[in-house]
Specification:
The complex is a heterodimer of chains A (421) and B (265). Chain A is 71% helix and 1% strand. Chain A is built from 16 helices and two strands. In chain A, helix 4 packs antiparallel against helix 5. The two termini of chain A are 34 Å apart. In chain A, 42% of the residues are buried. Chain B has 265 residues and is α/β, with parallel strands linked by helices. Chain B has two domains: 162 residues, 3-Layer(aba) Sandwich (Rossmann fold), CATH 3.40.50; 79 residues, no CATH class. Helices cover 34% and strands 26% of the residues of chain B. In chain B, strands 6-9-10-3-11-12 form a six-stranded mixed β-sheet, sandwiched between helices. Chain B is globular and about 60 Å long. The two termini of chain B are 18 Å apart. Classes of the chains: A mainly alpha (421), B alpha/beta (265). Chains A and B meet through helix 8, helix 11 and helix 12 of A and strand 8, helix 4 and helix 6 of B.
């Protein structure tokens, strides 16, 4: 029998490493993880590069500032919906009704403005509450009755389309011409404000990362090597400032008017991304979502209220779907009977999965949804520019979703073989 | 019941005359069971002897029909697992209750995360987890930020057990902790069980493996068809006697009276 050792120094536990020694070790560790099947967003980022090269070569208009700004506004609603779906997917559930829940909520918002004369903010609030209530109903049926989420949300997918039809009448549509709502996607931040925001994001991120690195080193906690921290900061700065630069160029095709600046939808998605990332990674609630997704029984035994977590993710998902529906209504200028139906949900699920969220639960980030959302929007945008018939669009998007799901399934198998998670 | 020298230390947890039935099946008959601080009590018995039911009764999962539940000599009313957890009684289940996708620290604090201004206090959790593991001389863990999925069976069991140290538990019930482990890993876990008791916790080890039981247990409680056949000091019995207690309910002058043993059938 070994003697009791309580000193950290001489215990076998002293083998515990507080840091990957160097930048090179960290890079090697990352490569090892990727090879072991833990690829995260890497396929999505590589896919995005390939898509940009292909579409850029196929059509010179693709790389124009106008089209890139258009791409941003197209991606907005997909990203928001996909971020909501990440919450549900983290539990290994699915919400097939998220798209139409967004449609119904946008419809409620539009009717509140046009028929009842509500101010825009009250109407938006009503739309989001409408979404949250739909999510609550789904969550109750899923968690309390134990109906598989696939079936519950399929029923809502059909039922909610009926609700939208009833609200706006057969074949019609409701116009959205409130200047604020429309402005989300058609108006831009003044260029100087855009640059100020971008700098604030970069400086804030760098400050936070460096502060956390320093305090971790000081407290002797596990931390990433300094080189990795710097690489992350440089990456965030490059993307933020690059996008800001592109969107600050004049993109008007008419020489008499000038269009420049960041569309309002981009900071909206950015704020949501920051808030949701914070919730998922820094709060007990977020930790519990991952725990329930990883092993619901273990979470239950540890005292986590599994039913409440399960209900809450559907509420979050549908509320975000409502926001996404409102952004889509802003982009389209109307809400119609088919809002949120069709391939909207498929796009969003595809976005989340392409970005690296697992369909099996327990793995995913809000950032995955945004990266995946940009990939999906790029496909839709690029194919649209190439004037392909819509059947090609469906085929390609379906194929991409299938490809992403296959990558997810295969990498999951490799992860379990190599013991990574 | 054998006449036994009254121990110098008082039991930390004690059940007196506990009965439990599921419908017409009378699973536990007047069971008396004690757990002493600083000692490992092995709970042995054949399949269907009532080991799991007894553990679940202690854990508060099954309410008892009659009998007294004493903690530190005082009767307590137990209505559910939370009451038992509040007393400082932890159960480490056979099918390890860990989340594969979370790291060691997150798993050890799951459901009881430390927070500072509403936000997870990762720094304090990591430090405390590291100290808990170090106090048990846990070996071969590369980093406390490792995902649990990358750990071996023995390491997982270790993390589950270290959780009890972290929460200053008073009594730990281990349900077949070595059932799925190899030789070296069993060694690790058995050492760990000993260290838990050395830290003053009352440890209950449920096991089928007589070698493990004799290696680590201070006392042995043998269940036979829902009755306590005997509660003996491990140093005072032989391997063979315990096996007889398990299979026949009696061994020489130990165990149930012949009539009682027969009646249990």
């Amino acid at each position: 029998m070994t003697t009791v050792k309580t000193e950290l120094g001489d215990s076998d536990f002293a083998a515990d490493t507080h840091s990957d020694e160097t930048f090179r070790d960290a890079a090697r560790g990352y490569l090892q993880r990727v090879r072991g099947g833990d690829m995260g967003s890497l396929p999505a980022v590589l896919g995005l590069v390939v898509l940009f090269i292909v579409f850029g070569l196929a059509n010179e208009r693709f790389m124009s500032a106008l089209n890139l700004a258009n791409l941003v506004t197209q991606a907005g609603s997909i990203c928001v919906l996909a971020m909501g779906l990440v919450f549900v997917l983290l539990l290994g559930d699915i919400d097939l009704s998220a798209g139409v829940a967004g449609g119904v909520s946008a419809c409620a918002m539009a009717l509140a403005i046009t028929s009842h004369g509500w101010p825009w903010w009250a109407a938006v609030l009503a739309g989001v509450v409408c979404g949250a209530l739909i999510g609550l109903a789904i969550g109750l049926l899923r968690a309390k009755l134990g109906i598989p989420s696939f079936v519950v949300t399929l029923a809502f997918f059909l039922g909610l389309q009926g609700v939208t039809l009833k609200l706006i009448g057969e074949g019609g549509s409701v116009r959205v011409d409130d200047p604020v709502i429309r402005g989300i996607t058609i108006d831009n931040l003044p260029v100087t404000v855009g640059w100020a925001c971008a700098l604030l994001v970069v400086v804030g991120y760098a400050g936070l990362e460096l502060y956390r690195h320093r305090s971790k080193v000081a407290a002797g906690l596990h931390h990433a090597p300094f080189g990795v921290v710097i690489a992350r900061i440089v990456g965030v700065a490059a993307v933020t400032l690059g996008v800001t630069y592109l969107l600050s160029l004049n993109r008007s095709v008419n020489p008499n008017i000038e269009i420049r600046g960041i569309p309002y939808v981009l900071p909206m998605v950015g704020v949501l991304l920051i808030v949701l990332t914070f919730v998922l990674t820094r709060t007990p609630y977020g930790r519990h979502i991952y725990a329930v997704g990883g092993n619901a029984e273990a979470a239950r035994r540890a005292g986590v209220n599994v039913d409440r977590i399960r209900m809450s993710v559907f509420v979050v998902c549908s509320a975000l779907a409502a926001l996404s529906g409102i952004i889509a209504a802003s982009y389209g200028g109307k809400v119609s009977a088919s809002s949120g139906a069709g391939n909207v949900l498929l796009y969003a699920v595809g976005a989340a999965v392409i970005g690296g969220t697992s369909l099996f639960g327990g793995k995913g980030r809000a950032l995955d949804a945004v990266i995946g959302g940009v990939v999906v929007a790029t496909i839709a945008n690029g194919l649209g520019l190439l004037n392909q018939s819509s059947y090609i669009n469906f085929l390609v998007t379906g194929g991409v979703l299938l490809l992403a799901a296959s990558v997810d399934a295969i990498s999951r198998r490799r992860r379990s073989a190599t013991g990574l998670s | 019941m054998t006449a036994e020298a009254i121990p110098k230390i008082a039991p930390i947890l004690e059940l007196q005359g506990v009965n439990k039935s599921f419908g017409v099946v009378h699973v536990l008959h007047d069971v008396d069971f004690q757990v002493y601080p600083g000692e490992v009590t092995a709970l042995v018995g054949d399949n269907g002897a009532g080991k799991s039911t007894l553990v679940k009764a202690i854990a508060g999962i099954h309410p008892i029909d009659s009998g007294t539940y004493l903690f530190e000599g005082k009767p307590v009313s137990v209505h559910g697992p939370n009451d038992v957890a509040a007393l400082g009684v932890e159960v480490v289940y056979q099918d390890l209750a860990l989340c594969d996708n979370l790291d060691i620290v997150s798993n050890m604090f799951l459901g009881r995360e430390l927070r500072r201004r509403g936000v997870l206090d990762e720094a304090r959790m990591e430090t405390m987890a590291r100290e808990a593991l170090a106090s048990l001389s846990v070996r071969t863990v590369k980093s406390v930020r490792q995902a649990v999925s990358s750990l071996s069976g023995g390491q997982r069991q270790t993390v589950a057990i270290a959780k009890c140290v972290l929460w200053n538990s008073r009594v730990v019930l281990l349900d077949e902790p070595t059932a799925a482990l190899g030789v070296a890993q069993t060694r690790q876990v058995i050492d760990l069980v000993r260290r838990l008791a050395d830290q003053g916790l009352g440890v209950v080890l449920i096991s089928h493996n007589m070698v493990d039981v004799f290696e680590v247990a201070d006392r042995i409680c043998a269940l036979y068809l829902g009755r306590v056949a005997a509660e003996v000091k491990a140093s005072e019995v032989t391997h063979g006697q315990v096996v007889e207690l398990i299979t026949a309910g009696r061994s020489g002058n130990l165990g149930l009276a012949p009539a009682e043993a027969a009646q249990s059938m």
